[in-house]
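for the writeup, i need someone to sanity check this before i put it in the appendix. the sequnce is what the collaborator sent (i think, or maybe the updated version? ugh). structure was predicted straight from it, no edits. if anything looks off just tell me and ill rerun, i have time this weekend
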Amino acid sequence: MPEDVYENAPSTAEDLAFLLSDDLISDIVDAVRAQDADTVHASLEDLSNADTAELIAKIGEEDRRELLSMYAGDINPVAFTEMDTELRRAALSTMPPSEVVSIISALESDDALELIIDLDEDQQRSIMQKLSAKMRTAVEEGLSFPEDSAGRLMQREVVAIPQFWTVGKAIDYLRSAADDLPEDFFDVFVIDPAYHLTGQIPLNKLVRADRATKLQELTLDETHPIPATMDQEEVAHIFRRDDTASTPVIDDHGRLIGVITIDDIVDVIDQEAQEDLLRMAGVDQGDLYRAVWSTTGTRFRWLFVNLLTAILASATISLFDATIQEMIALAVLMPIVASMGGNAGTQALTVSVRALATRELSDTNTWRVIGKECMVGSLNGIAFAFITGIITLLWFQSPLLGLIIGLAMIINLFVAAFFGVSIPILITRMGGDPAISSTVFLTTITDVVGFFAFLGLAALLLF
């Protein structure tokens, strides 16, 4: 391979990890402020779409507004699809409708729909009126499907070929219609005259076949079209399970209406994973770019719920205030039991939420998983009961106090494991999202049970 291929390649792992350096960002910002158009044009031209999105995310609000107002034409429209949802909404809202229309019109239908969904209703109507009839129809159709469904995710540009064609005719068609084909596609879909899907052919299989071969002879034996109303999480599960690159989407009548490709699914998996992680902490995905008051409001609600649960735990402690006054060591030791229970419960909860998200947990193995987690919790409870019991004995010279904290540890770690794995399952069966509220319930249970077990045993055995 020629050496000049690598002439400009990054030379270190650090270069590969941080192609868009802070120094480069500062240089571009300085050029924007100095109205050095040549430098800005050259810099934007050299950046990838992901780097451009990162640049817009990292610069200040005033610099971002100036960059978009002066140099929007130099930014590849695909770069807007790489941005965080909240950042993209803020960026597009500052741009004239004509520029937004130009950006959306240059995208494929699935990406165009993603951008339009982020806008408020007034902006949507204004933009839709200026789109071409073809793009407007595709977007309106996409908006008619449920949120987070396959219909919202799919790309309308699809390669569909009649089932009676030969390989040679199909290849000739693909070459002649190159300008009208999707930018990237992995399969050719075979249809009947009513546009019903009859099969799909991977491109590598098509180009290897003899020209005289009928398409019907090449179609895959198992083609699993996805209903347009299917939830995107279920679609992602199908892609993960079947290791497929693209899958057709059909309407209620079985007609081919679009295709979902692996690049869209990677985004879905990343988005869902981030949402679950953030929701467990009561944080929204766009908090980094959202206004202060909006961010404060969303976090206040979560913190208020936590305040109520903390009051409940404190109320449990107040039931044993006389016991605590008799032995100050109890006040020193009781946070240990609650903390260990919370951590053990979080471990079980994380396993449960992940298993539910990846469809590894169902009615078939629910009780087996619960039983295993309870066993793990009990064994860890016994182990840490011995450790904390010895520490308490050496610390306070009280064998009975060591026994009490050991028993409380066993009880709380068992309870934490049981509820840690069970709460997400219960919330899921009730139609809720286990990532949102599981942590609050679990923390409340482990705190209340931990305090009650420890102080209750102390009141029973010491006084």
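The two ends are 83 Å apart (CA to CA). Strands lie at 160-162, 187-191, 197-202, 226-227, 246-250, 256-261.
thx in advance!!
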